[in-house]
## 1
Amino acid sequence: MRILIVDDIFTNRYLLVELLKTLGHDYAQVENGREAIEALEKENFDLVLMDIEMPVMNGIETVHYIRNNFPAPANRIPIVALTAHNPELFFEDFRDSGFDKLLTKPYNLEKLSTIIDDLIPENKGS
Ligand SMILES: [Mg+2]
């Protein structure tokens, strides 16, 4: 799998990079929504891990843009929201915003691999 990490905080990206390396996935990383859109226009990815609160263009604006402006099937790429918020309070809102799943802090290998397997079934067992 090739996965795009979108987060303005270096240490958050660093931790996700380490987890993705351990899971054997390829990755690229950018710092805000505008850079994410540029990366997705240039390259193919299988999944996006997207922070919510970022400067320049936040996660909700970015998902909205991808869902409404990218051609099919690129507009349907699985996008996971990265957040510290309680999922029980926020999950419906994030679904409405166009996210597929929520990955809550603290991140760990099991949470991340479960989400990747759920969203990309052909990845299972690899
Ligand atoms: Mg942030």
## 2
Amino acid sequence: MAGELLQRRHRLLGQHAPLFYEEPLEIVSGEGVWLTSADGRRYLDVYNNVPSCGHCHPHIIAALTGQASRLNVHTRYLHNTILDYVERLTALFDPSLDMAMLTCSGSEANELALRMVRHMTGHQGIIVTDGAYHGNTEAVAELGTGFMPEAEGCQRVVGIPAPDSYRLPPGVTTETAEDYYVAQVESAIETLQSRGMGVAGILLCPEFANEGLLNAPEGFIDRAVAAVRAAGGLYIADEVQGGFGRTGHHWWSHQQHESVPDVVTLGKPMGNGHPLAGIIARRDLVEPFSATAMYFNTFAGNPVSCAVGMAVLDVIEQEGLMANAVSTGAHVKAGLDKLALASTAIGDVRQKGLFFGVELISDPATRAPDTRLAKQVVNQLKDRGVLISSIGQHNNVLKMRPPLPFGPEHGDILLAALGEVLLETDTP
Ligand SMILES: Cc1ncc(COP(=O)(O)O)c(C=O)c1O
């Protein structure tokens, strides 16, 4: 049956439409942090950050169906719901970030942010980190330095090495890492200026989530942003993965640093699975930009989407999901640290709230990335009923970011399964 489904998928969507696991899963329902496959097996979801309030949350479903059964229409009519939502959402940011433009995906949000900073600065140049993924439109694909065809030879984007504190470039030490990575930003600024592009901005995911959930050197972001601003550029924080309370202590991951972004892009968890995304930006950017650049997005910010977005905020607040991210995150981190002592395959454990990156290595002396083992662990965990994935430049970092109602009891299931898999596969 699964074979038939796979063949049909290949025929209709092509062989290259991305799919998880050596033996792909057919998921038919979800509830909280659990997913159920077509054969009735339950899987603990330690991967999906989009249904961040939990799969099929009843309060969010009620908001969606309630509004959908009254009215859904585009945003060129007056409607309280969009205003109530944007008012509540922007109140969660620095007071300078008081306006929103809604979109349907994180890619559209980043595309819009690029248009805005280029328009407002009159410059074209954008600095990004290598290995970051920011989405799928043509201009955003140019940001995929090192792996997107659109980025190849693109003159208006310069990639810098992602600020990795664990896997340092040759000759760089823990003490010199921050200066080294800031110098990369300064050099990127010079490159863009020498090309006549100028500096429109730096676009960073403050968690470096797609780069492997890196622990950047402490002062890197603030110093990088200061250098970009001195060159006339703006700071775009991509909160598509790090936002909506996942890191626990803050609503937004950029709030771990001093620098307040000029534009923030949002997506994934914003609608708990409903396509809701957008940008939050300063009034002095949004007003002049939208006065000249016509921006209308048929589905974005419709009453149903905004009712859903509002319900997501209700759940995060009413169910204490950020406090849970702090406490369960610490519980799981302690368990992962313990596992790291028992398994030489774990080189580094990184965690922010309910966001975990576990770096697998084949040799503690050289820290050589173990891509093969990461693939094996992901597939074997799936066989044990636990869903995770891998990420990073070498695809050797176990990537775990469960729905936020993930409790310590779920963490214990993950830790037990991961311990079994790693200790079974560990080579002495
Ligand atoms: C950090 C980041 N930004 C932007 C995007 C693009 O979002 P979307 O897939 O909703 O277009 C992604 C998607 O994975 C992402 O991880």
